[in-house]
Amino acid sequence: MGLSTHVLDTMHGCPAGGMHAALYTTQGDQATLVRQFVLDADGRSPDGPLYPDGALRRGSYRLVFDVAGYFKSRGVDLPEPSFLNKVSLDFGVAQEDQHYHVPLLVSPWSYSTYRGS
Q1: 50-86: per-residue pLDDT in tens?
Q2: pLDDT at site 8
Q3: Average per-residue pLDDT in the chain?
Q4: Pairwise CA distance, residues 11 & 105, whole Å
Q5: What region, left, alpha or beta, does residue 113 occupy, with left being phi > 0 and alpha being psi -120 to 50 degrees?
Q6: Which of 5, 25, 51, 75 is the most exposed place for a label (fewest CB within 10 A)?
Q7: Coil, strand, or helix at residue 30?
Q8: Which ranges in 10-117 belong to alpha helices (H)?
Q9: How far apart are CA 114 and CA 102, in angstroms?
Q10: Who contacts 86 (Cβ-Cβ below 8 Å, separation ≥6)?
């Protein structure tokens, strides 16, 4: 089926609208950019799913989120270098007939993710 993501800013208790992100396909150490995007006010890709239903293929992927850039743009005083800069999530798609949702919960000091629905 498809692939989507959603980012929540746990420091401010809101979606991470304005965060820059990128999606890659990966094979070993090789990463190929699929697309770059800026999250909308709801913390999601403004164009909807990153892969629509039927377009997602079995394989390895990487989502990269510009966490430091986002928090700096929110006026958060981060140390230099910041504890988290870009957060990369590497994940695999084994079942093309299922939807993969990859949420990110993030603050300047921590993050977590899981496979959502």
Answers
A1: 998 889 999 999 999 999 999 999 999 999 999 999 9
A2: 98
A3: 97
A4: 10
A5: beta
A6: 75
A7: strand
A8: 67-73
A9: 6
A10: 64, 65, 66, 67, 68
Kindly indicate whether the domain formed by 3-113 is annotated with CATH number 2.60.40.180.
yes
Q: Are strands 59-66 and 30-38 parallel, antiparallel or unpaired?
A: unpaired
Amino acid sitting at position 31: A
Label residues 52-75 b or e (16+ Cβ within 10 Å = b).
eeeebeeeebbbbbbbbbbbeeee
- The C-alpha torsion from 3 through 106 and 7 to 41, rounded to 10°, is -160
3-class secondary-structure state, position 72: helix
Model pLDDT, residue 3 = 97
Which residue is listed with tokens 């007939």? 97
